[in-house]
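Re: the request from the purification team.
They wanted to know what the chain is likely to look like in 3D before they choose a buffer screen. I agreed to run a prediction and write the result into the notebook, where they can find it.
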Amino acid sequence: MRAILWGITALCYIIACVQDLRTCRVVNLLWWISGAAGTVLLLLQRNGRIGEALPGLLFFICLQQFLFSRMYGRADCHAFSVCALHLASLGVGLRGYLEQMLLAFLFLAIVQFFRKNIADNGNLKRPVPFLPYITLAFFLVVCYHTTVT
């Protein structure tokens, strides 16, 4: 069951990345499907510590939807929120969500630096899809936490 849910999640992220790269838009239905898969994974959590995960998860989702949504696109906020939901199902807490977010920004900064797409004020000269960076960081964090713990 878990493998199927993770497969659904991976498929949603792949489709979202392709959409973001092609049109700079992502269909919200992908976040609903992936979010539902993450919710089921959270409910199936082995250690049964859902109550411990919820405060950090809800705090992070609120940060994404109300604060960071002003900095980057709504789809990116939804992606980070769904990533956090899936990470919570692995027992990763707020620190892990923030690490994944920082890693995504780091990947974006490195690639855009070498492409000379960063202006003097630190903003991008030309907007680029952010979702591929979020997805890469997410799966790296998932791989790290599944092999370490």
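For the purification team: The first helix runs from residue 2 to 23.
Please add any questions underneath this entry.
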